[in-house]
Amino acid sequence: MTDTTPASAPAVPDAAAEELAAAEAAEQTRVRLAKREQLIASGAGAYPVSLPITASIPDVRAKFPDLEPDAQTGERVGLAGRIVHLRNTGKLCFASLQAGDGSRIQAMVSLASVGEESLAEWKDVVDLGDHLFVSGEVISSRRGELSIMVEEWRIAAKTLRPLPNLHSELSEETRVRQRYLDLIVRDQARFVVRARAKVNASLRSTFAGHDYLEVETPMLQTVHGGASARPFVTHSNAFDTELFLRIAPELFLKRAVVGGLERVFEINRNFRNEGADSTHSPEFAMLEAYQAYGDYNQMADLTQQLIQDAALAVAGSHTVTWADGTEYELGGQWDRVSMYESLNAASGLSVTPQTPVEELLAHAATLEIEVQHPTHGKLVEELWEHYVKVDLTRPTFVMDFPVDTSPLVRDHRSIEGVVEKWDLYIRGFELATGYSELVDPVIQHERFVEQAKLAGRGDHEAMRMDEEFLRALEHGMPPSGGMGMGIDRLLMAITGLGIRETILFPLVK
């Protein structure tokens, strides 16, 4: 079966090609608007409220997977789909109908089955892209293609704009800005949406197996906290006060633990007023979880299980295949390395938590590394990224961070100057982080004071003093472990795609 999509035009300058395409689209829209009026005038309607559907395209394909050519089933169904291929001949017309999951079935409209008037109307009003209802017998064509021999048809929704050429790749900009077209055209776009749903279901299932409770916390906050990031600022007319879109749910989830909800998690949106690139989006989905009487080692074990279970749900294996065909192994036990030890091994330096800032600044300068508002911790982390991060290929937990970059984390139980924090790197980017949580309200107050000093010196990512959170800690929070992971980045690790491909409708200019 062929379709009526025009062949590629000869190469012309980009501006001229865009102008020509726009003119052709405008003409097609004008013609389709006229067909819409024609359908309404005839009483058939262009957008009926309901249709006598008895089966779906996937259902019919599953029920009749291997019909011989020219076979008849005697079973009549009513189903609907979007027309993605269309061929009109004399007495027999063909349309390929596509369901939302991408599965297709052929509709055969013959003069003998529908009559002269209906066939003429078909040729007059049906276009590529229309949603179409058909009813008739399930058969196999002479070429063995599963088909419906149409006895009745109706327009289910008249399209006013043409579909893109199904034989040409959509540009990345079109895929991102008009995701609905991407979902119609590309199998991979549909796969990612379904993969994301499987990932979220898997995460919830794994948490349920560990007796976690899913909760929801505020997205509008009077004090932004829980991460080092620049917030979006808004104003509440009702309360006449400045509010922030949350950068993290951490401080509210910890309040829940104080209240006796000993194992809690949340999957929801975070917002950070920062740059956008292949691994960052201003709006993103985040998972955070907290466990009373746990620590960062237990949270690392849990995080590994969460990711491995999600990979199994999507790929059926801990070995995932990325979009470019690369296989990546997520199974087994993942490496755990010390930040300071791995930095020294890769660089030949002898950096410790007590190394002065001036010494680190001097070494950073030789590498042309610039750090705004430099502290010991920021410089150590920048040097680590320069020397170590680029060579991380396997999933790796990087353990034990500088204290001054981790104001919500408990001091290490045996190493002075560091805290019990890890970052998980997969595919060369940070996927998750985990802590042994700081629960001493006196030390937490001191850490907030230090953050306030940084903010006063112009560090827009520094945390603000949160008196209500400190009040909660003063009522006693049990020793706890916590973790956070970006859902979009988890999809990146499983599929090999960039962040704009894993978010259904990413924010773009």
TrEMBL record:
Binding site for Mg(2+) 2: E430
Subcellular location: Cytoplasm
Parts of the chain that traverse the membrane: none
Cofactor(s) annotated in UniProt: Mg(2+)
Keywords: Aminoacyl-tRNA synthetase, ATP-binding, Cytoplasm, Ligase, Magnesium, Metal-binding, Nucleotide-binding, Protein biosynthesis
Alphabetical list of Gene3D superfamilies matching this protein: Bira Bifunctional Protein, Domain 2, Nucleic acid-binding proteins
Every Aminoacyl-transfer RNA synthetases class-II family profile domain range: 203-506
Pfam families: tRNA-synt_2, tRNA_anti-codon
Cofactor note: Binds 3 Mg(2+) ions per subunit.
InterPro entries to which the protein is assigned, alphabetical: Aa-tRNA-synt_II (IPR004364), aa-tRNA-synth_II (IPR006195), aa-tRNA-synth_II/BPL/LPL (IPR045864), Lys-tRNA-ligase_II (IPR002313), Lys-tRNA-ligase_II_N (IPR044136), Lys-tRNA-synth_II_C (IPR018149), NA-bd_OB-fold (IPR012340), NA-bd_OB_tRNA (IPR004365)
GO terms (BP aspect): lysyl-tRNA aminoacylation
EC number: 6.1.1.6
Gene Ontology MF terms: ATP binding; lysine-tRNA ligase activity; magnesium ion binding; tRNA binding
Gene Ontology CC: one annotated term: cytosol
Keyword Ribosomal protein: no
Subunit structure: Homodimer.
Family designation: Belongs to the class-II aminoacyl-tRNA synthetase family.
PANTHER family per the UniProt record, alphabetical: LYSINE--TRNA LIGASE, CHLOROPLASTIC_MITOCHONDRIAL, LYSYL-TRNA SYNTHETASE
Protein name: Lysine--tRNA ligase
Organism: Homoserinimonas aerilata
Lineage of the species this protein comes from: Bacteria, Bacillati, Actinomycetota, Actinomycetes, Micrococcales
Gene name in the database record: lysS
